[in-house]
Amino acid sequence: MDIVTLFPAMFEGPMTQSLLGRARDRGLINVQIHDLRRYSAGDRHRTVDDRPYGGGPGMVLQAEPIYKALKAIKAAGTRDFGGKQKFYVIYMSPQGRVLTQKQALDIAARPWVIVLCGHYEGVDERIMDFVDEEVSIGDYVLTGGELPAMVLAETVLRLIPGVVKEPGSLLEESFQERRLDFPHYTRPSVWRQRRVPAVLLSGNHQAIKAWRSKRAQSATLKKRPDLLSR
Ligand code: SAM
Questions:
Q1: Pocket residue to mutate for ligand 1, from 61, 91, 92, most atoms within 8 A of Cβ
Q2: Is the Cβ atom of 137 under 6 angstroms away from ligand 1?
Q3: Does the reported pTM lie above 0.90?
Q4: Which class in CATH covers the domain with range 2-157?
Q5: pLDDT tens per residue, range 45-84
């Protein structure tokens, strides 16, 4: 995954710590962060934005630096993959399709994804000719595409085989089967007068499975009934 951003340093924590950091160290995922300013026209301020035509507040990211960044990433990747690589370009945008687990699975199956983070008022619309999909993380507006790109990266990359140590846990997670996850408990079995459900201590795997399935269903009915009717 290649991420194009005005703020590469923002990715240092999420991409080097925890699950993604370990997966990167083990060579399971390849995430490259690209500074959009590297592709500026080369002026002293490394400008990549300008005022909007038609007036109004804010600035707009220019098409040319983004085009040059995409071209450079594609050229480098095409060399790596013998000229056969098909890139999928995603623009993080509040106007995109709101990210779901199903969509994350589709994106995870793509061999190479380039993620573009917008800023200010967004990007020059003409760059959309080079974008395959706009992805939103929800119906609200953030200042830039960096946090949304991190959400997308984590959601997608943890689905790559080997990244999550126990693949079984992915299958049981919320949204995998149009239902939420079942409740989890850990030691101690009694905590401040609250007991772990007895079935979980019974060692009866069939009974545990049935209990979990029932509880997953009731959690979905209570918290997200829309998932069942979809
Ligand atoms: N003027 C744009 C609009 O109203 O549709 C909003 C621009 S927003 C301030 C700046 C950038 O943040 C966007 O270009 C996009 O990359 C990112 N962004 C903001 N909210 C987002 C969201 N909910 N999902 C994904 N990206 C978002």
A1: 92
A2: yes
A3: yes
A4: alpha beta
A5: 999 999 999 999 999 999 999 999 999 999 988 656 566 6
Give 145-177 pLDDT, tens digit per residue: 999 999 999 999 999 999 998 877 787 788 878
Superfamily of domain 174-229: tRNA(m1g37)methyltransferase, domain 2 (1.10.1270.20)
117 C-beta closer than 6 A to ligand 1: yes
Other C-beta atoms closer than 10 Å to the C-beta of 47 total: 14
DSSP, collapsed to helix, strand or coil, labels residue 153 as helix
Q: Is 178 exposed, middle or buried (0-12, 13-18, 19+ CB in 10 A)?
A: middle
Q: Name the nearest CA neighbour of 87 among 123, 127, 132.
A: 132
What is the domain partition of the chain in residue ranges?
A: 2-157, 174-229
210 CA to centre of ligand 1 in angstroms: 43
Q: With a 6 A CB cut-off, is 138 part of the ligand 1 pocket?
A: yes
Q: DSSP E strands: which ranges in the chain?
A: 2-5, 32-35, 49-50, 60-61, 87-98, 112-117, 133-136, 190-191, 194-195
Question: DSSP character for 163?
Answer: T
- The number of residues in the chain equals 230
